[in-house]
Design a protein that fits this description.
Elements (H helix, E strand, L loop, with lengths): L1 H13 L28 H12 L4 H38 L10 H33 L4 H13 L4 H22 L4 H8 L4 H7 L2 H12 L1 H6 L11 H38 L17 E2 L8 E7 L6 H11 L5 E4 L1 H6 L1 H10 L1 E4 L12 H19 L5 E2 L10 H9 L3 E3 L3 E2 L8 H15 L2 E6 L3 H20 L5 E2 L2 H10 L1
Parallel strand pairs: 1-6, 2-3, 2-8, 2-9, 3-4, 5-6, 7-8
Helix pairs in contact: 1-5, 1-6, 1-9, 2-3, 2-4, 3-4, 3-5, 3-11, 3-17, 4-5, 4-6, 4-11, 6-8, 12-18, 14-15, 15-16, 17-18
The structure holds zinc ion.
Length: 500
């Protein structure tokens, strides 16, 4: 029965239906923020979602609670989709007019980053709610989790195909929750997830999911079609609108907060480009000051570092390593402690020809945490990397780049003996599913910046393809003499800069 439920979801994800109605008011800046982003992801909030479900007066009410979470997640994604288009238009304009393009100063880029954070938090809430539904199913109502999923499928059917692919990531996450329960977890395991450690579920079942989803897709082609909801069922309800309004409030607050961070970075870049000469370059070393943070704009001419965040991934990281090897390039992998813990052997393999760096344990927005939590996120990950590779990481990247102008965060990074590494080229490969447009976006920014740090993620299938295409493209241009792209390892670039 579980298989059938997922066949429905997977097939719905691949069907094409009309675009949904999206509120254009979402990003309006005159909305008064009532609830800050910081309050969204707290365990108490997750608990509230769960209790709304499990202790709701009716099952219908419980269903609504989960559905609202799912709507919110989708809405966050729809907004990033809009901003991605605007970002690309801004980039095209800059390239056509021969202007420089600084990420830190682009409004649409800031919005994408903020929504990325909101989306991650929403996803965790949905997964947690579904986890509770599974638990409720086990103890009281065998069918409850199935009903939650079938309601979810109605939301999916209202999305465009590009949007469905991303929501498809969520269905695959929910499948992991189901696998977790199928593996007959101990009461201790369940308690751990209930304490909010959602990412841990993924470690437990990583690798099995893709295979299972594949089998399901092949086995149930017709049932999925028959189970498509009618048009009538797709009509937006009032509560959906409320969720959207709530999201708008969060966005307004969070954009302001992150904008301040990014503006500080932009100011630092400005000082650098106007006041400094190559002869006056300071040594780059762990510190809370400007020389403890790299953006790529300080690199020697035509010099590039390729970086990968959020891994390692069970299958995709190895494919990225192959591409790098084929082109003789050494990359830097900013890895999550939670994933390092699950795959220490893979981390050791990455470290052979590449640099393994710190990206926190569970990808929080560090500026929202207390000093002790920040320290623990960083140190715990450093310990795990040292255990896997034999040496402590020398570089660190804050999730969402958030924390570079925050003294508490910067101090913790410097105390751990690391240089912070920002980026000046963002491929936005986590959102764009098309490898060739990812490469186009990267090339445009590289042309505008002439040197720097390129940001990819080694956890998405489209990224694996795009990385290869980009390395081939820069090779072709260099060989043809029409331009020069020198890919170097991050430690060697720092060494080179410190030696001049
Ligand atoms: Zn990240």
């Amino acid at each position: 029965m579980k298989l059938l439920i997922f066949s429905t979801l997977v097939l719905l994800v691949s069907c094409s239906t009309p675009a949904p109605k999206v509120s254009s008011e979402l990003a309006s800046s005159d909305m008064t923020p009532q609830r800050s982003l910081a309050s969204v992801n707290k365990v108490e909030d997750l608990e509230q979602v769960a209790s709304e479900m499990v202790f709701a007066p009716s099952e219908e009410k419980a269903m609504e609670a989960v559905s609202e979470q799912i709507n919110g997640y989708q809405e966050a994604y729809l907004r990033t989709h809009d901003y991605l288009k605007k970002f690309d238009a801004d980039l095209d304009h800059a390239v056509e007019n021969g202007e420089t393009f600084e990420l830190a100063k682009n409004n649409n880029y800031q919005r994408i980053l903020v929504l990325w954070d909101i989306r991650t938090r929403m996803r965790d809430k949905v997964i947690y709610a579904y986890f509770k539904a599974m638990k409720y199913s086990q103890s009281r109502d065998q069918g409850f989790a199935s009903k939650v999923l079938s309601r979810f499928s109605k939301h999916i059917s209202a999305l465009t195909s590009a949007e469905k692919r991303t929501v498809g990531d969520l269905t695959s996450d929910l499948k992991k929750v189901q696998d977790f329960f199928d593996s007959k977890p101990s009461a201790q395991d369940i308690a751990r997830v209930e304490n909010g450690d959602v990412s841990w579920i993924f470690e437990k079942v990583e690798g099995r999911t893709a295979e299972v989803v594949n089998k399901i897709q092949k086995a149930f082609p017709s049932q999925g079609q028959e189970l498509l909801p009618s048009k009538k069922e797709l009509i937006q309800e009032e509560k959906d609108q409320q969720e959207i309004d709530q999201m708008a409030k969060q966005l307004s607050t969070a954009t302001t907060e992150l904008s301040q961070e990014i503006e500080a970075e932009a100011a630092a870049l400005e000082i650098e480009s106007t006041d400094r000469t190559p002869q006056a370059v300071a040594k780059y070393a762990p510190s809370v000051g400007r020389t403890g943070n790299l953006t790529g704009s300080e690199f020697p001419a035509n010099t590039w570092a390729i970086t990968f965040d959020d891994g390692p991934h069970a299958s995709r990281t190895a494919l990225v390593l192959e591409a790098l090897k084929d082109y003789g390039v050494s990359g830097t992998f900013f890895q999550l402690g939670s994933a390092v813990k699950a795959k220490p052997t893979l981390v050791a393999t990455v470290a052979k020809n590449n640099t393994v760096a710190n990206h926190t344990f569970s990808h929080p927005q560090l500026t929202k945490l207390g000093a002790a939590e920040v320290k623990s996120q960083i140190k715990r990950t450093g310990d795990l990397i040292e255990k896997a590779t034999g040496s402590r990481p020398k570089f660190m990247r804050c999730p969402y780049g958030s924390g570079i102008s925050n003294s508490k965060v910067r101090q913790a990074i410097a105390d751990e003996g690391m240089i912070h590494v920002f980026w000046n080229v963002d491929t936005l490969d986590w959102q764009d599913k098309n490898p060739s447009s990812i490469v186009q976006r990267a090339m445009k920014q590289m042309i505008a910046n002439r040197k720097g740090i390129v940001l990819f993620h080694d956890i998405h299938p489209q990224s694996v393809k795009a990385i290869r295409l980009l390395l081939q493209k820069t090779n072709d241009i260099t060989q043809s003499g029409k331009g020069t792209y020198k890919w170097k390892s991050l430690p060697s670039i720092v060494q080179e800069m410190n030696a001049r």
